Amino acid sequence: MTTEELTINVEKALEEIRPFLNSDGGDITLISIEADKHVTVRLEGACTSCSVNQMTLRAGVETTIKKFAPQIETVVNIA
């Protein structure tokens, strides 16, 4: 998978999870993909102060991204 295809797949994953985040007043933005295996995102809105945002990141965001792009190893949120 090319870097461009990987970026498209990660964006598709974020589009899939975005409605769930939006329903709670949050959102997510792709910041970068490093070495085609490390994704950095920014949780926004209500997600920044949510007490379960790390669970959302691991159980929701990371799982969904890995479904679309299995070679991704880590997903990190920057504040």
What does this structure look like?
The protein has 2 helices and 3 strands. The chain has 79 residues and is an alpha+beta fold. Helix 2 (53-68) links the parallel strand 2 and strand 3. Helix 1 (3-23) packs antiparallel against helix 2 (53-68).
Strand order of the largest sheet: 1-2-3
Number of strands: 3
Contiguous uncertain segments of 5+ residues: none
Structural class: alpha+beta
**Large-scale geometry:** globular
Q: Residue share in helices?
A: 40-55%
Strand content: 25-35%
Q: What can be said about the biggest beta sheet?
A: 3 strands, mixed
Q: What radius of gyration results from the CA coordinates? A: 12 Å
The helix-strand sequence is HEEHE
User: pLDDT average, as an integer?
Assistant: 91
N-C termini distance: 29 Å
How many helix segments? Answer: 2
How would you summarize what this structure contains?
47% of the residues lie in helices and 27% in strands. The protein is α+β, with helices and mostly antiparallel strands and 79 residues long.
Q: What labels describe this entry?
A:
79 residues; alpha+beta; three-stranded mixed β-sheet; 3 strands; 47% helix; 27% strand
